[in-house]
Amino acid sequence: MLINEACKKSKLTKKAMEYYEAKGLISPKVLENGYRDYSEADILTLKEISVLRKCGISVTDIKNILCSKNKSAALAKCKYVTEIRLQRLQTIQQCMDNLIRSYDVEREFDYLQAHDENLLTVKERLVLAFPGNYGLFLSLHFGRFLDGIVDTDEKRQAYNEIINYLDDVELHLPPELSEYLEEIFTLNERLDVVQLENTTNKAMAEMLNNTENYLAQHHQDIEEYHAYLKSDEFLNSPIATMQKKLRDFQKQSGYYERLVNNVKVISPHYAEYLAEIETANEQFFRAFPQAKDIYDLN
Description:
Distance between the termini: 66 Å
Keywords: DNA-binding, Transcription, Transcription regulation
Order of helices and strands: HHEEHHHHHHHHHHHHHHHH
Protein name: MerR family transcriptional regulator
InterPro entries: DNA-bd_dom_put_sf, MerR-type_HTH_dom, MerR_fam
GO molecular function: DNA binding; DNA-binding transcription factor activity
Largest sheet: 2 strands, antiparallel
Number of helices: 18
Domain HTH merR-type: 1-68
């Protein structure tokens, strides 16, 4: 069908359709006379674009959603970023309401300091820096510890280091690892990254609460898992290859030195959490000394 009919079916203007084509969101067939011939599939895509635009999603993000193997997961990532931005907006609106009721600049200066948006920026940048919903997973993981404010020179420097790391991270990310992270977090259409993070947190809390008891209760399961990690089945698998690439990426990009260590600076809560994990790890390797070889810790 020609553009006039396509406009009627999609409820879009000619200008909008030409814009979406220029941005690579649609690719209608071009006839010999130069006219566009829109298929029913093109119309469905245009309707999809229209719905997503009305949800406030950018053209760039819409393109990522259209190309995604799991559109629901890609949309969940956009929704999370939108929620972060709404938190900023709510803070601004509250400040404006307060000033309207009583124009006290000193009070609102203190209010905005207490609602520092820098940590919201870290959460947002974490989501956007990594492929697929891996960034969302990391943002949820670190985000629950980012509940303070950047109120010292040391924290400001750490914050700047984190932002610089997130700016550079794509340079260290091999295409095959990027594709793997995209797939592993979108493999199941029903995968709820929030639920995955909550489940992980619950299991970690159970282990940290009483590490000795946890290791005793799960001793057989851990032994079986270690046996699997040493098996040819695992060592020759694509997952093992990609896990090694992930470890190499973390070393090369400075994941621990530039990200984790600086999150510890801006979040004492996170530093305490890592100290608990370190103590638990000591107990773990006393119970399973052979695990050091498995996890390349010797």
